[in-house]
Amino acid sequence: MKVRNIILVSILAAFAAASCAKTSPEAGLPSKAAEGEGESVTLTFSTGVQTRSSFDNGSSATVLEVFAFNSDGTYYPLLKPSVTPVREGNTFSCSLTVVKGLSYKFVFVAHSGEGALVFHPEESAPYMQLDYEHLNVNSAKDDAFWGSATWQSGNPTTISVELKRPFAQVNVLSSADDQARALAAGLTAAELASLSTGLTVANLPDRLNLLDGSVSGAYSGTFPLATRPSETYLDGFQWLCSCFVLAPASPQSWQLTFCCSTGRGTILRNLPASQFAANHNTDFKGYILSPDGTITLL
Q1: Which domain holds residue 269?
Q2: Model's pTM, two decimal places?
Q3: pLDDT, mean over the chain
Q4: I need a labelling partner for 112 at 20 to 30 A (CA). Which of 79, 131, 165, 291 fits?
Q5: What's the rounded Cα separation, in Å, for the pair 92 and 125?
Q6: SS3 string of the chain?
Q7: How many domains does the chain have?
Q8: Same-domain status, 151 and 172
Q9: Which residues of 180-219 are buried (b: 16+ CB within 10 A; e: fewer)?
């Protein structure tokens, strides 16, 4: 497994005059500690070192979600950036107005805005769900980065937050000899180039706790099939399938099944049990399509 790139968020907290309403605070906003004074929080975002895989360089993370909680995990749904953060180059900038004298926990998720992520910050244990039923296989749309920071209002400072990918990237890779065997066994060149591929999984976590980054859940099923990537991976291997799955920080073992459709039938291959960890990738490479020189279409 290889460590993947990270995204950094730096929080600059600076004092600023802010008008506080003299009526009772709205639901979803923290109660003010003092009349007529607040603070602004400025956030900047930058990507880490680019990696070699075309699916995992972080370039798809063009949307920054900012969730604010108090010290006991209560969500402030109305405490949002005044202007939607926009990525310019490798940087996101946004500002929040917060109330003096309170402790906050900010949670950040950078993502594409087009993926299978569903956010539930209002729950007692706030979480982000990866909806595997609508997973974007062979695409970077589901790539995302998570991080958090605690901040005591009234202590202006700069905080650097490291956002890490909470997913393991799974790559299923075919050698040139494997593809030659597949052609000799009866696949056409057109079928080989346009295979629809995916994975069948059992008991994979599908929820990320927004506050502490732990994962939970036990999804079982088959991801939606999608046309295989056309790019070459490393050392001449060709991608058959690539996708992101939620994984714990410490490696844990799962067994997956690779499946692909040729239009005439389906090929299934049980992959060896392997370890998966957040912010790492797990590669299955070699004789995937035709390990014994034959192909059985189901």
Answers
A1: 167-286
A2: 0.84
A3: 80
A4: 79
A5: 27
A6: CEECCEEEEEEEEEEECCCCCCCCCCCCCCCCCCCCCEEEEEEEEEECCCCCCCCCCCCCCCEEEEEEEECCCCECCCCCCCCCCEEECCEEEEEEEEECCCEEEEEEEEECCCCCEEEECCCCCCEEEECHHHCCCCCCCCCEEEEEEEEECCCCCEEEEEEECCEEEEEEEECHHHHHHHHHCCCCHHHHHCCEEEEEEEEECCEEECCCCCEECCEEEECCCEECCCCECCCCCEEEEEEEEECCCCCEEECCEEEEECCCCEEEEECCCEEECCCEEEEEEECCCCCCCCCCCC
A7: 2
A8: no
A9: ebbeeeebeeebbeebbbbbbbeebbbbbbbbebebeeeb
Q: Based on the domain organization, do 33 and 158 belong to the same domain?
A: yes
Phi then psi for residue 150, to 5 deg, are: -95, 145
pLDDT band at 36 (very low <50, low <70, confident <90, very high): very low
Per-residue pLDDT tens digits for 62-94: 898 989 998 888 999 888 776 677 777 666 666
In this structure, are 106 and 178 located in the same domain? no
Strand duo 91-99 + 38-47: pairing: antiparallel
pLDDT in tens, 206-218: 999 999 999 999 9
